[in-house]
Amino acid sequence: MENRYEVVIIGAGPAGMFAADELVKGGVNDVLILEMGKDMERRRCPETQACNCVVCDILEGEGGAGGFSDGKKTYSLGRGTQMEEIFNPKYEPILKEIDDIITHYGGEGKVFEPVNEYPEEFEGTKLEFGSYPLRHIGSDGVRNLIIGHMKYLNEQGVTTSTRSEVKDLILDGDRIVGVEMYDHITRKSEDIYADQVVIASGLQGSPWFEEVLEDIGVELGVGHAGMGVRIEARYETLKDIFSRFYDFKLMSTHGKLSFRSFCCNQRGYVVNENHKTLGVRNVNGHSYLSEEMRSDSSNFAIICKVGTDYTDNPQEFVRGVARGINALAEGHPVVQTTEDFVNHVASDDVSGGGTRTNFQARSGKDIAEAMPNDMWRGFSEFLIEMDKALPGVVGKESLIYAPEVKYYGRKVPVDFDTWKVKGKEGLYVVGNATGYLDSFVSAALSGMIAAKNIISEKENE
Prior knowledge:
Elements: E1 4-10, H1 14-25, E2 31-35, E3 72-74, H2 92-106, E4 110-112, E5 128-130, E6 134-136, H3 138-155, E7 159-162, E8 164-172, E9 175-183, E10 188-199, H4 206-215, E11 225-234, H5 235-244, E12 249-254, E13 257-265, E14 269-275, E15 280-286, E16 297-306, H6 314-328, E17 334-337, H7 338-342, H8 373-389, E18 399-406, E19 427-429, H9 440-459
């Protein structure tokens, strides 16, 4: 491997890959992507009961944590930004560029237009409803997207190095000039120099890069974090709401906490994630477009937004709750029936009448035992209101898994028109690593904006 590049990108998720795509189209071909995980074709979850792989293929590798997602791509400057106004309207045309790349490699999938009318079955409940432009390409489409896109980037001269862990940044005064990298295959360390360094390390890299940035004097802000649970029910139970809109958004509040549904998966699967860097074993949801790969169950998550008006350190608070749930099950996620959850009792029988798709989570414990009372009540009220419109959401055949933590990293001081770190030359932070973004498309957009700025600066040299 050479030890000097024009641009080094840390992380091969959507932010890193789309940044590299924009760079090569702008004539910057001397690009290196360093990725801690494996290449996409070798990412496989063995679904062992221990869930203790050295590298979690669900979270790490080419494509990032979204590489095994169910492929819901949202095309709105206001989605994936934690409801903050991050992107200038002038960037709207770039969304079309992102969609063109996604459909070229991942397929057309299915397009869902926003629903303007409030679903009549939810009249009389306390839940608000929302939707937005969406393309669903499925977990199978996502895999094709990542493999095809990365092949194209490599053909254009981009170098990718998997199982490569960045240990630190190399500074020259206030300018970042490279990275210290450890290769887990050769077991050798190497200093790699670059004109520009782009951090696109995503959720799994948050603890590392937060420590690294603080070490070089970057002051990080505190934002909110999300504590979630995932519901799995019979396909027929959720069929009506999915027929309205694939990734439906239902919302409610309880005191200082707000709750919303997200990451909805029709006829999908509940999967484990090992967030080793956060000390949490998590659950998530996936689904496929291919009929032969679909299940008889549907799932969705409910996220509780924890802000600074609730606790001084939302990130650590959420991690504490998640670790507490894991502790109930000897370090694993917990599963119980939704009926038992709202009644605050443990479940011994979690067969779900054939609903269950995740057999790594442990039963016999009550998730609510590890939650603050107001958080449990907020989740319970949400489910009870849903059950009024969709009978069966609360019952013996519907399951609830936890934790599904969304640790939105601490906020990095970046310029949203360049995604450069303020006060540090030669350093960009993009995607979910920034603490502002939480979706595939928004991450890709930030990477492309950063790349456009790198190209512009190079042209003006």
